[in-house]
Amino acid sequence: xTESWLTGHLAPVPDEITATDLAVTGTLxxxxxxxxxxxxxxxxPGEPSKHWFLGHGMLHGLRLRDGRAEWxxxxxxxxxxxxxxxxxxxxxxxxxxxxxxxxxxxxxHADKILTLVEVGFPYEVTPGLDTVGPCDFxxxxxxxxxxxxxxxxxxxxLLFFGTGFLPPYLTYHRLSAAGELVESREIExxxxxxxxxxxxxxxxxxxxxxxxxxxxxxxxxGGGMPYRWDDGYGARLGVMPRAGGPVRWFEVDPxxxxxxxxxxxxxxxRIVVDGARYRDADFAGLWADIGGAPDPARxxxxxxxxxxHRWTLDPxxxxxxxxxxxxxxxxFPTHNETxxxxxxxxxxxxxxxxIVKYDLERPSSSAHDLGEGMAAGEAVFVPAESARAEDxxxxxxxxxxxxxQGSELRVLNAAxxxxxxxxxxxxxxPAGFHGSWIPDA
Length: 441
Ligand SMILES: [Fe+2]
What we know:
This protein is mostly beta strands. It has a single domain, classed as Methylamine Dehydrogenase, Chain H. The chain has helices at residues 80-83, 216-221, 280-289, 296-299; strands at residues 18-20, 24-26, 34-41, 57-65, 68-76, 105-109, 112-116, 123-125, 131-134, 150-151, 158-163, 170-175, 181-187, 199-200, 204-209, 212-214, 227-229, 236-241, 248-251, 256-265, 271-278, 307-314, 319-329, 331-334, 346-350, 354-359, 364-369, 374-376, 380-383, 393-401, 407-413, 419-424, 435-439. The strands form eight sheets. Strands 2, 28, 29, 30, 31 and 32 form a six-stranded antiparallel sheet that branches. Strands 1-5-4-3-33 form a five-stranded antiparallel sheet, with no helix packed on it. A hairpin with a 6-residue loop joins β10 (150-151) and β11. The longest helix is centred in the middle third of the chain and has 10 residues, at 280-289. The protein is globular. The chain starts with 17 loop residues before the first strand and ends with a strand. The mean pLDDT is 96. This is Dioxygenase. One of its GO terms (molecular function) is metal ion binding. Belongs to the carotenoid oxygenase family. Fe cation binds at residues 148, 196, 259, 434.
């Protein structure tokens, strides 16, 4: 049997290409002048692949300018694991944080474009997608770096964390708006977990300490992703003042969360966190399907899908309230990042057959149907230059034929999810993880 992540719209592509003057249907807004970059795993042809998350990172980039799609190109990220087959665990059992796939996200901060994966250092790339090399911020980064840092839209800082298989299991970092690593702080947690994302608010950081834990036996024997669900670990969200101070932990119903949508402090001082939540059975199904350790009994009751969920944490009472926001299976929640940590009305998500927009103020949702047999990647929100409303802007998403017949970039009007333009791509883009719109300065 061929692994699910090597077939159809997930199948890797065999090589790197460059194409220019791409065909466009509809009208590309002229103000969309910049680059849309997206990262994802792409094992080399014939290379063994034990888990969807482990393939070498490949960037797919589109250059848009003045209403034209000037180029598409795809490039593997030249990590030491890619070019020299360097191993993450050295013979002396220390970790080589440059020997990582760099396959999960790509962001721009200060003067750098960084590709990210949560077990190691970022790799810097050029605007043309050539690899510059690993980045440890002048030697100051002493842990791995999450693939989901958060840029504060008010201060311009980039807040992030790194996890470790050995203590310290969790380290908080703060990068200034100018790109200098100005703070690193160890955070106490009970053990090493697969902490993929976190949240920020105006005054706090929110940790997700959830029961998908590192398993040394799996690491020594499996060669895949050494994590499994552990009923004994418990589940908690931690609220930590950004200015320093202890973490306040809130017990929550056990679940797993790859992705937070956004978080904020409400008028009563409560911390509101929206994210895509997996029940244990749903996580078990997904995890086995992408190469993780199977748990068939648990998976039998699941759907492999996450659902949008809200946790409200009240520091005054120590209480948590939880609310399922919808029963539709969705992932990759995104928002208008000028609102990160400061309250959002809208979230954009990816369902099996649609891009789904949630209005959380007047609870409702709307959808852009992808069409028969199509699948979409994360929808990145780009604010309009003259934006007056939170959803004044566009959504960029790569949509692919599930049978592997091709891909296109769709530009949706974020207000009503209508199709503004389609850029026809010269080749299929494998379903991957996260990307960013990087406007020209
Ligand atoms: Fe992610």
